[in-house]
Design a protein that fits this description.
This protein is of the alpha+beta class and 294 residues long. The chain has six helices and 15 strands. It has helices spanning 23-30, 94-102, 105-123, 196-208, 257-266, 281-292, and strands at 35-37, 39-40, 43-44, 54-56, 66-72, 75-80, 135-137, 142-144, 151-152, 157-166, 169-174, 186-189, 212-223, 228-237, 251-255.
């Protein structure tokens, strides 16, 4: 991958793992000049300077669960767990993408990490083992069950996302949920007992009927909708023949390098197809692929 990090990478805070399990230290930190990330449920708010909006921790509701997000130049940074979580996929938040595009990279990375962990807390207030209420622990990077002593940790779901190449062309697909004319890299969740390479091969075979080989890693990206780790890969196909599973994707096509370059350059005005959002790792992967062949 090129020097530019994919969006949501580069979390700017010191997570202070060696300190966040100390309740006394956290209480002292909250009593100082700690900052509270201001959100509208789970959506970002912009401050006057154009970045994320901030308030004093003292302004948080008295009954709020506060998650320690990290240290910023020695100051504590916290986020309040919202009343409810969000399980809708990223494409449903189209109005929010304008706000995200306005954020500088460090703020975008901070927001992505905060959104993921706060959303997890909102959706995991009860123990998966016994069903009793859980309580925040370790500054918010754990939930404990007082009833059965089970410990629960914020989850990250691994997703394989892949560029499949054959004779200098790329295989891209579209879901019926995508905006019109939009195509992106094929992707799917990695299943239990499966390696990254096996997941790439299985997903491409299931969605497009294509067998791949020589799978290699490109880059990764945390994706906070709700909390995935996108693992970008490249693979080679032995045949261009496609057998599309309509229950998986609506369409898949092979695109020549010139077509990909045009889509990346012209954005929504491209006559060929609409490339993925700049915030998506698929956009970074397409840029990487073009750079490899200049």
């Amino acid at each position: 991958m090129s020097a530019a990090l994919p969006a949501f990478c580069g979390y700017p805070l010191d997570r202070a793992d060696h300190l966040r399990s100390d309740p006394a230290w956290l209480a002292e930190l909250r009593g100082g000049d700690a900052l509270l990330l201001v959100l509208d449920k789970l959506a970002p708010r912009l401050g006057e300077a154009g970045g994320l909006a901030w308030a004093a921790v003292a302004e948080a509701p008295a009954d709020a669960e506060l998650v320690f997000l990290g240290l910023l130049e020695g100051r504590g940074v916290f986020g309040a767990v919202p009343e409810g979580g969000e399980t809708a996929p990223a494409y449903t938040f189209r109005e929010m993408w304008g706000l995200l595009a306005a954020l500088p990279s460090p703020d975008l990375a901070l927001y992505g990490g905060a959104r993921s962990v706060l959303d997890w807390h909102a959706r995991h207030r009860f123990c998966a083992r016994c069903g009793q209420p859980t309580r925040l622990a370790k500054g918010g990077w754990q939930r404990d069950c007082p009833a059965c002593t089970a410990q629960h940790f914020p989850r990250t779901d691994p997703v394989a996302i892949m560029l499949v190449e054959h004779d200098g062309k790329l295989l891209l697909g579209r879901s019926a949920r995508y905006p019109p004319r939009s195509y992106s890299a094929l992707a799917g969740f990695i299943e239990p007992g499966e390696s990254i390479e096996e997941a790439v091969a299985r997903e491409v075979q299931e969605e497009a009927g294509v067998r791949v080989r020589d799978v290699r890693y490109i880059a990764s990206q945390p994706w906070p909708f709700p909390s995935q780790l996108m693992i970008g890969c490249h693979a080679l196909a032995d045949s261009p023949d496609l057998t599309i599973d309509p229950s998986e994707i609506e369409d898949a096509r092979w695109f020549a390098r010139a077509e990909v370059a045009e889509a990346m350059e012209k954005g929504p005005d491209s006559p060929t197809f609409v490339a993925p959002l700049r915030e998506a790792i698929a956009h970074s992967m397409l840029a990487w692929w073009l750079e490899q062949r200049i």
